[in-house]
Every structure is written in structure tokens, then in C-alpha cells.
Amino acid sequence: MNLAMIEAAAKRLAGHGRVTPLLSSPFVDEIAGRRVFVKSECLQHTGSFKYRGAWSAISAMDPAVRARGVIAFSSGNHAQGVALAARQHGVAAVIIMPEDAPRMKIDNTRALGAEVVLYDRARGEDRDEIGARISAERGLTLVKPFDNEFVIAGQGTTGLEIAAQAKAEGVEAGDVLVCCGGGGLTSGIALALEGHAPGMRVRPVEPEGFDDVARSLASGRIERNTGPAVGLCDAIITPSPGDMTFPIMARLCGPGLVVTDAQAKAAMRVAFERLKLVLEPGGAVAFAAALYHGDQIEGDAVIAVATGGNVDADLFAQILAEG
Amino acid sequence: MNLAMIEAAAKRLAGHGRVTPLLSSPFVDEIAGRRVFVKSECLQHTGSFKYRGAWSAISAMDPAVRARGVIAFSSGNHAQGVALAARQHGVAAVIIMPEDAPRMKIDNTRALGAEVVLYDRARGEDRDEIGARISAERGLTLVKPFDNEFVIAGQGTTGLEIAAQAKAEGVEAGDVLVCCGGGGLTSGIALALEGHAPGMRVRPVEPEGFDDVARSLASGRIERNTGPAVGLCDAIITPSPGDMTFPIMARLCGPGLVVTDAQAKAAMRVAFERLKLVLEPGGAVAFAAALYHGDQIEGDAVIAVATGGNVDADLFAQILAEG
Fold this sequence. Notes:
Strand content of chain A: 5-15%
Number of domains of chain A: 2
Low-confidence stretches of chain A: none
Oligomer: homodimer
Number of helices of chain A: 14
CATH topology of the largest domain in chain A: Rossmann fold
Largest interface: A-B, 35 and 35 residues
Mean pLDDT of chain A: 96
CATH architecture of the largest domain in chain A: 3-Layer(aba) Sandwich
Helix content of chain A: 40-55%
Order of helices and strands of chain A: HEHEHHEHEHEHEHEHEHHEHHEH
Strand order of the largest sheet of chain A: 1-2-10-7-8-9
Distance between the termini of chain A: 43 Å
């Protein structure tokens, strides 16, 4: 896993992925007490950065293997990314999703042409067993959400854009905060910035109660979340960092940050009001850290990656009303 | 008023204005029955395209004149654009606003450092008289919202970007739909595209009951709205096209389109769900026309300019809940 793989992914993504804007607002800077730039991946195709990794992985497959189709496990954003990238390559996609995933994510994945297989995580159904059976029957290739070099390379293209866009704003050093689940985006951006903006330091941001990456970085080994695997920030609730992503984060990333659900919601309201962006809770935690944990951040400027915007309308309206 | 003035404004705006993205979604294309691209000016500084014209006008002023300060009349978006551009030039701004303008717009204008003078339009207070008195006392220069060549040139820079971005998407012909109040943006884009994308046709879009521009284009002379000057789409409710903008629109623009408030709200919901954008009602009418008036649009692709996103949270939550 190296920078050249990210640069190769960027070439494959050219003309397919969207170069998302780096946004800012004087009102946001005032809240945060420093300059804040928001890399707006909620504006990426399918409403999250996951399209990058999915396109990267599917476009890199051997055509004969790809033609048999792909399969993925996802609570929703990786699902949509894989569904669209598969459809654009003209191949079938099967997505295994939990029954209690946000309705919009399930509906969109189906509407993008994927076959969705739901499982009941409350009843303890084994998604791996379900996936293995379907894959074996149909010869599908598994596209993992983060422990896959081509996926990490695709997510890392976000980092190439950040390096160039930040430089254009006169920013070449500072913390880059990334909403972190399994660490595919975080590790990909870290590798990209190591090569293209070595003055920047990547830091994962997680919701309270699901801070497996922060704890793993602190202890130096993979730590797991205990307790239920559901919460407001569904997109980034994962049991632990990946075997492939953790060593990269351990080598390159600064200490993790942790925000409360209330801070994630407040950040969604600020993004609505000041940036005109729709963020989902799990896509807002990095921005929340920039706004509300300034004491843990170094430098005059900070970059927060807003990773996704797939939130149901009723939840969004409720969060606005709480403000 | 010509293309060279727009190109000069683009040079002055470089490094200050934001090149806003041209967004799309397969779900949007499906509703519209053709490819739809959304020029996302809600992501411009201050949340609307008005910053372009304000910066263009203020940056072009004689420094000695500019130093005495500027004044503007606005229900809110021009207000914020002038306030920020004035502050960035280090000069004072006085903005005359109606008392019943959206709260966010008044608050933001003040927060951007402008002195806000409110008048009560229900009681028939004469804003022109108020403005003339303050200008005379303090030597302020009036920055009109649309009947000003430098303002039109600034708004026209949106058209230069549309031409380049659409070409990159393989689109060089088709209708460009623009939310239209006094016609500054519409006429500016029309002039820019006449030079840079002559296969495109600009068409103003207005809310039902405030279709002065559509009627003026149909009759060939300036027509006025009668009735109250307040409505859901506050940003684009103006009595008539401008003396400077109308001849440009009459020469270059296709027939106007008219949408209902219900269609504007539905377009806001689609922008929320599919593009992750916050649009205000008046900033959504062009997108609404693309979605719901396809029978009046020609071509395989259409471009809609989403002009602004300054909407109060309670109204936005209510509109989401109506969906």
C-alpha cells in the first residue's frame, strides 16, 4: 500500500469521481477560533466518499472476474458506492445490509440497481455466512469496505485533492480531521498527505462510545468496541480498525478525537446554516471536533473532512428543531 | 455592458470568489427525464451568487470613493454579499433592509460588519428616501442589486464557469435555467454564454404571481408585478426587470418559466435528498423548473442555477416535513 497506488486510483477516477470543494465561512472560523476548511465529500456521487473506493476497486479488477459481479457488506454508504460503481461498469452487485440501516440508504442502494439482502443483526444472523454462501454460488468478488488496498487507494484520492486545495488557500500545515470508522479514508488520506503535504497531520475523529481507533492509536494495538453496534453515527460505527488500515494510521496519524452525539448534531446545524451542506451524523464528527475541540487541535488552520450526507429527512428536521 | 467586462470581473474575483461545483445525481435525472446539472451558488461565499456582483462592483471602485463606504438596499442576499465584500475591502457598508426579511439574512448582514437600517414596508416607509438621506450625509456610494454594469459583470462570471464546467461534462448546448429577480444574474450569464457557449440558451425562472420577467419577455416591454411584494421566494421578488438588464434578456434569453411555491418546496426536498444541498425557496425555482416543467424544456441536458441557500432552519424543517 503506497502513494503510487493512490495516484493510480486518481487516474482511474478522473472523469468519474467528483473533485469536491473545500468550503469555509467566516462564521465557522469565529466559532472555532481558527480558520476551518471543510472538504465536502457529502457532495461526492452517492453522497459520500465511499464512491471513490468502490470505483477504484471495481475499476482495478480483472474484467473476466468483474463480469461475474461483486458483493459487499455495508450499513449504507459503501453499499451505495459499490452499487453505482458496479452499475457504471455494467456488472451485478449484491449488498448485504442490516435491516435497521437508515431507510434512505437501503432504498438508494436498490434504486442504484443492486440486489439488497437484509439481515437481522438484533437476532444475531451471521452476515459473513450469508455473504459467503451467495458469493460461492455466484462467483462474486467481495469488495471490503476498508481492508482492501484498492479501496484505501480510492479513498486516498481525497487526500491528493486536500493537499492541492489547501495549498491554493495558503495552508500547508495543520491538522486534518477525518470521520473514522474502519480507517480506510483516514489511512488513505494519511498516505496521500505524507507524500503531497508532509506538514499536515491526519487525526481520526469518532463518536463517544465507539472510539476504537483513538484507543488503538493510544495503546499501539487494535482495540475493539464493546457494547451494541448501533448509534446515531451509523456510518462510522465499526468494531475495530482494520488489519490493513491500523498499521498505516499507527505510523502516520496523530491522536484520535472523540465527540458526543450532541456535538455531531450541533455541527450538522452549523453546516446547514453556514455552509449550506447536508451532513449525516457520522459525516459531521470531524467538523464537530474542529468546532468544539479546538483546545486539542494545533495550528492556525484546520481541515475537516465531511464524509457523508445520507440522512433521512425526518431525522434531519428533528435535529434542526433541537437547535 | 459586454463580455470583456465579465472577463475583467472574473480576474478581480480570482482568489476571492469560489468556483462552485456543477452537481448531478442519477436520481435527479430520473425525475427530470433528462440529464440535469445544478450550478451550486448556494455554496458561494455568503450563501448566494450575490457575493460575485458585490465584490465585482466594490473592487472596481475608485479607492478614494470606496473609502467613504457603500450603501445597498436588499431583502438579504445582496445585503450579505455587499457586507462581506465591503469588509474585505476595509470599508463601511450601510444596508437598508425590510423589517420582515428572513431573520437569518438580517443577522448575517449585521454579523458581517454592516450597519443595518430596517424599514417597515407594510407601513409604506420609503426606503429610497431613507437611503438617499444617509448616502448624502456620509458620502456613501450606492451598489444597486442589478442595474449596475459591474454587478452584472460579477454575476456573469457564473456563466463563464458554467460554460467551462458543462463542456467538461460533454454538454455544449441546452437550456440554462436561472432563478430571476431583477435579472442581474440572468443577463450576466446570458452575456457570458453568448461568448463562451453559444449553443446554450438562458431562460429566467420565477415564482407564480411574480412573473414580471416572463411577461416582459413575452410582451417585449418592461411589465410590472402588481399586488403584495412578499412571498415564499423572497430573494427573487422584485417589481420588474431592470432598465439595464431587460434589453440584454430581451436580446438573448428564451421564454421565461414559472413554478408554484409547492414546486419550489419539492425541489428543495430533492436538493436535500439527492444533492446534499440546502436551497432557499427563491434559490430553488430554476431546479424546480428542471424537475417539473420538462415539457417546456428542449434538449437532452439542462443546467439549473441554484442561486442561494439562506433559509431559516424552522422553515427548512417545516418544508422537509411536508414531503
